[in-house]
Amino acid sequence: MEWESPSVVLAARPWGSGDAVVSLLAQDQGLWRGLVKGGAGRAQASTWQPGNLVAARWTARLSDQLGNLGGELVHHAAAVVMDDPLAIDILASACALAETALVEREPEPELFAGLARLMVELPAGAPVLAGLVRFELALLSRLGFGLDLSACVLSGSNSGLAYVSPRTGRAVTAAAAGDWADRLLVLPRFVLDDGEGDPAGWRDGLRLSGHFLARDLFGQTNRGLPPARERLVRRVEAMLDHPT
Amino acid sequence: MRGPELDRLIGLLARLPGLGPRSARRVALKLLLDPSGRMLPLAAALSDAAHAVRACANCGNLDSTDPCAICADPDRDVGLVCVVEGVGDLWAIERAGAHRGQYHILGGTLSALAGTGPEDLTIAHLLERVATGAVREVILALGATVDGAATAHYLADRLDASGVAVTRVAQGVPMGGALEVLDDGTLTAALRARRPLPR
Fold this sequence. Notes:
The structure holds 2 protein chains of 2 kinds.
Chain A: E1 2-15, E2 19-26, E3 30-36, E4 53-59, E5 68-75, H1 77-80, H2 85-101, H3 109-121, H4 128-142, E6 161-164, E7 171-173, H5 174-177, E8 185-186, H6 189-193, H7 199-218, H8 227-241
Chain B: H1 4-14, H2 21-33, H3 35-52, E1 54-55, E2 62-63, H4 69-72, E3 77-84, H5 87-96, E4 101-105, H6 123-131, E5 137-141, H7 146-160, E6 165-168, H8 184-192
Parallel strand pairs in B: 3-4, 3-5, 5-6
Antiparallel strand pairs in B: 1-2
């Protein structure tokens, strides 16, 4: 058994002396784990940092074995953003979410494309947060918890959508929300128009996706959201409190 | 073929880093061939270390005294604290002899997958040390990994209010390293961390 595929490294756990068990999001294979001989050693450790794009190759005698992973570095996302605290938090949050939420060996080509694009765009700074929120909403959708943002659940209108019901995950217009607005989750504009957004929108977007990730994905198994994502939310809120 | 004592010895040796069952058998054989010269002194040294060595209450270093020899050294600069992940990193920096301040052993790095949060590290104790006012610079000497960088940024944020200078060790080309054999990530980090040559 073997495959070769572009992949994003999600995590690398040391194994024995110098080896590593690496988790990848492979384009055609989905979340996949394998043993990298020497993966935690001096020569290879930088290749298997979370966020890096690699041309991965997996081999095993039987399909249900852990198997051996190898690969060539294609894009070193981690090294590029080491000095950028926001980018590091976005990288760690996205990789931790994918690693902990996805089902193993289920092909997820769209999520791979979203995550790979996010990793390449990391140096662009804060606007990448809009991409992270879109990735999280896509993750929810792929796992069966997608939001319905096509029309207002109350009026049926598809213009002026401004909120999302935290219970049903369906959109609500500002006019229909009325006095209930403060009980609803804010739907940032960039989610609908694919724009860059602004700091308040990024915070609202993270709250929106975070609510459903916590309730529907992680809450199902009594797990909290990854700490990296909680650090990211605090950092974005601090950006709003202390704009530079 | 072997008695239970020998199996137990080989089993315990095989659990040590870098040793497997085959090398553990070789070590056990070497020890057994010279009990008085190798085995009993090793057993005594292991016992002495197990009873005497403890973690320094100030920095977390392992030593037979508390505070450890580094913290108790009056020639050390108490205003300069180097934060490292573990004792092995402290030993590496001490071998280099390039740091004449004190240390702080963090006990690891923040890790989403390993479930290591701030409360699992000695961050609170570091903040207490800084709050005494004796520290003027904290050097973050953490690994050049995503977890190491996330931890460094987290520490920098937490230390921001204290007013102490927060620096980190450089990342880039190692001494004696030829550029053509360096990995892409290290080269990228080196180029991003370039600085003017002194004139």
